[in-house]
Amino acid sequence: MIDRLNVRQHSEDRENSLSIYAVKSSSSRGREREEDSCPIRTAFQRDRDRIMHTNAFRRLKHKTQVFIAPLGDHYVTRLTHTLEVSQVARTIARALDLNEDLAEAISLGHDLGHTPFGHIGEDVLNELYYGGFRHNEQSLRVVSLLEKNGLGLNLTWEVRDGILNHSKGEKSLFSSDWGRSNSYEAEVVKISDAIAYINHDIGDAIRAGIISENDLPRDSSELLGDSHAKRVNTMVRDIVENSWAVSGRVETSRRPEIAMSTEIGWATDRLRNFMFEKVYKVLSDNAVAQNARDVVRGLYEYLVIHEDILPTEYLSYSEETERRVVDYIAGMTDRYALDLARDFGLQA
Length: 348
Hints:
Blueprint lengths: L6 H9 L27 H10 L2 H5 L18 H18 L4 H10 L8 H11 L6 H12 L10 H8 L19 H24 L10 H7 L3 H15 L19 H23 L2 H19 L15 H10 L3 H10 L5
Helix pairs in contact: 2-5, 4-5, 4-9, 4-11, 5-8, 5-9, 6-13, 7-8, 8-9, 9-11, 9-12, 10-12, 13-14, 13-15
């Protein structure tokens, strides 16, 4: 019989049946500050809940994924992207007998540090701030410091590691040369992130009239499928089959990997390269994108001079003016950044 006063213990016991490669919550490296365990939730379940209740998570609904201030209601935002990554990651983790709760927590926190206007805002801050800016590092800063008025969320080491190391950059989806996180669950999130953005960005680009389904590379579509659902299904199934050794059920002499097969990975890379050439580059060169760059640059330069305008809580996050300004701007939604720029007279 389950001890109703300690459901967490029962959940931890069930984790013992997971893959030998799975991270068990009871074996976590712990938190930055020691605290009592929850009687109901495992450490990773608790991290997931803490992330979902943050202001940073709520703001994702008004942050750009790819299309800035789209007119339609069905375009992907940073929040819906995050939820799609979580869904894909949970499916893969469950199929491979990995820790689904850990994968979900990392997924939900991976983009908390993203700037307004998506990667455009990230690129501008990286150019302006002498210390550089990368959204994965800012996501870690959000959960470790900026939330809860400077206290942070006190997440487990495994979730923080997964958030920091979730970016694949432009590396191939089926090669093993893009570096590794310290858990297979984090690797699952990394590849799930790519699956999510490639496929929902195709949908948004078609919705915006930039491309049509028929424009997609034919050789890629023949392997992956001719619809969003078919493509996602093919990619996920291929990862599960190609990574099956991770479940611990297949003997292997090599270190297991979370990766696509060469054939499906090639088709996915082909699709992603097409999106960079025909969609992302087009969007990054248009007038809306240039205006977004001007807004972020203008806010940074103005706030560095007028630091007294910053909300008082940002004074305690750093002793450096530029770092405070970066934290403030990175946390803004698209709408808030535009409104503030108008208030400062930075936009007509």
